[in-house]
Specification:
The complex is a heterodimer of chains A (about 160) and B (about 450). Chain A has seven helices and five strands; from the N terminus they run ααααβααββββα. Chain A is α+β, with helices and mostly antiparallel strands and about 160 residues long. Chain A starts with a helix and ends with a helix. In chain B, strand 2, helix 7 and strand 3 form a beta-alpha-beta unit. The chains are: A alpha+beta (about 160), B alpha/beta (about 450).
Chain lengths: ~160, ~450
Amino acid sequence: MLSSESLQKIDREIAKYPADQKQSAVMAALAIAQDEKSWLARETIEFVARYLGMPPIAAYEVASFYNMYDLEPVGEYKLTVCTNLPCALSGGVHAADYLKEKLGIGFNETTPDGRFTLKEGECLGACGDAPVLLVNNKRMCSFMLPAQIDALLAECK
Amino acid sequence: MALLGSISPLLTTGWSQGDAGWRLRDYEARGGYTQLKRILSGNMSPDDLIAEIKKSLLRGRGGAGFPTGLKWSFMPRSFPGDKYVVCNSDEGEPGTFKDRDLLRFDPHAVIEGMIIAGYAMGASRGYNYIHGEIFSIYERFEEALDEARAAGYLGASVCGSAFAFELFAHHGYGAYICGEETGLLESLEGKKGQPRFKPPFPASYGLYGKPTTINNTETFAAIPFILGMGGDAFLALGKPNNGGTKLFSVSGHVNRPGNYEVPLGTPFATLLEMAGGMRGGRKLKAVIPGGSSAPVLPADVMMETTMDYDSIAKAGSMLGSGAVIVMDESTCMVKALERLSYFYFEESCGQCTPCREGTGWLYRVVHRIEHGKGRAEDLDLLNRVTDNIMGRTICALGDAASLPVRSFIKHFKSEFEYHIEHGKCLVDPAAQSAGSGFFRAEGSL
């Protein structure tokens, strides 16, 4: 269900917690599973739960509670733009509008070619770098003016 | 990153090297880990250590401002089982971005602070819970932990002493509520991050039901510096009851948004000047001085205030996490509140009915005012909803959602009334668009 590489990564996470507290690794395990599968299907969540010896519903509760897990398929590049107040005061909303226009989609939509999904993010914790966006949960991009957004989109082939 | 006056930077000492100064050898070259070695070589008992922190009047840098030394003294050090030290780096309060830079430029200061905390409280294991959206910072922290382990600062025998301490990083995945300390503990246990009812407090029933102390990243980072200079000297940097320097994250309508370290008690006007002053030379209208949960203050009140816990409380707000959100005259306060209310609605964990339902009410009513569909009774309604939320929930998120609503209406009532009466903004839309600029003011990057 998951590659041996992913399982090794999960094992490293499990080792961070006391032996009888494997459930503590569920957030990391779900993130690793999502990295491999691109989104979390019910079967994937169930597999992670069984691997950690916890009830599937408990893993599903976690997957559905935290914003960065995707319980539906997303495009190859998920772009999350922060539009919260500090970012909005420095162009966050404009960055989101520019992306909507360039990609021809709204928030929570995916381009027809499956390349991009656009999400509205809550505070990414980088308000001084506004406008900021996050690529696939991992790569933070700062000071995203139109030229920088163009360059990013061209890079995401 | 600059510090005004004759005082040298403390927390930001290592920042001048940018991304080239975070490694163990760099931190050691700046005098890092000497406090840990001094303590473990037998020069300081845990009791003396806690007394020194109490003297410094270091107050929690995450938002609540609780005295750190006192918090540490609540831990039952002689309790025989496991005890934990947890660092709250789940920095998701809109406007706050200081812990990210601390972990980015000086992760070992946080690690040293946590090891010392473990020694002071008799804990042998720690976790640093890192905000989900800053993955590269989490990766760097993991590397820094490997360095500390290899150098013998972590492990079964810290610096060759009888003290054992292990430390791990835990990566969050996007939930503001996990910044609340018991929500964070639930999350560390692999559950939804829904806050716990208190008491019992974490010092008696924390992670896995064991005694636990949770402090903010900046709080831990300050520990080695306090022990280096002495508690009295740290206190003297700030003002009575407000010891030391503090990082302020300045965002919004300023020329140079960023983190600035200043002694507590520094005038707001000085901080604003350090951040390059108002963008485009426009006039200051309002400031949220302590992160999105703190009440907003009008410009004239802010310009008379100094940046410390007591002065900002006296002015009617909170120092909070030190996130200073600056808004100029082109800002529509209804729109600003609408965005904040959406945030709390989105981030309420859903556990307590007053917050789950109330944040929805707040957002929908502010939304309809902003969109020209406000009703005459809406301002009273908003205040009534906040009455029904505040003090009726397990954690402070409900209050955090209510305080902006109350303060925006209190200080900028005429804008709300104009919106309701005329169905549009009191602030000219053209001025608004020019004010926040398309992205940023020309040449300010």
